Amino acid sequence: MLKTIITSAITYSSTAIDLLIILMLFFAKIKDKKGIRDIYIGQFLGSDVLILVSLFFAFILHYVPDKRLLGLLGIIPIFLGLKALIFGDSDGEKMANKELNSNNKMNLIRTLMFITIVSCGADNIGLFVPYFISLTPLNLVITLIVFLIMIFLLVFVAQKMANVPTIGAILEKYSRWFIGFVYIFIGGSVLIENGSIQFIINLFK
User: Fold this and answer.
1) What is the gyration radius of the CA atoms in the chain, in angstroms?
2) What is the Cα–Cα distance from 7 to 177, expressed in whole angstroms?
3) Percent of the chain having pLDDT more than 70?
């Protein structure tokens, strides 16, 4: 159980670095209680949508009879990890700055949901689906609980760090390495645990 909790926390954290920077941008500008509440709600709803979509795909793919084929989904996190290491781009941060600098009145809940889903959707689903598939039902429940706690901690930490701009700069500078290596590690673990590497080798014999 402890291993599942730790792995789940690390898995979610690897997808949350960009969101942490985005949330800090919002908290740095929005100080009223209603605005802060809306940021929390918007982030929870956006993240929950991505988790539910990942669960749906994991449920469908779970019926694939050969687990070695399922393990090939581990290639997706590896690809995303390499992408983060090479390019290290953050479309979500650009979207957040655009919204914050706009003269139009924002609906914070809708804005945070939109930015979370659009900027993180592919990465989160690409990582969560193969990870969810590798879990037992009990470990999946534990993972979902950990994810919900991590969503709250993400927003809470962003709120507290918003007034320390140097931290945001450090995160932006080094996040690509953390994200990249964790994605590659998780993808490799999925390949190994499902015997997919040997399956790939046998294809070329």
Assistant:
1) 18
2) 18
3) 65
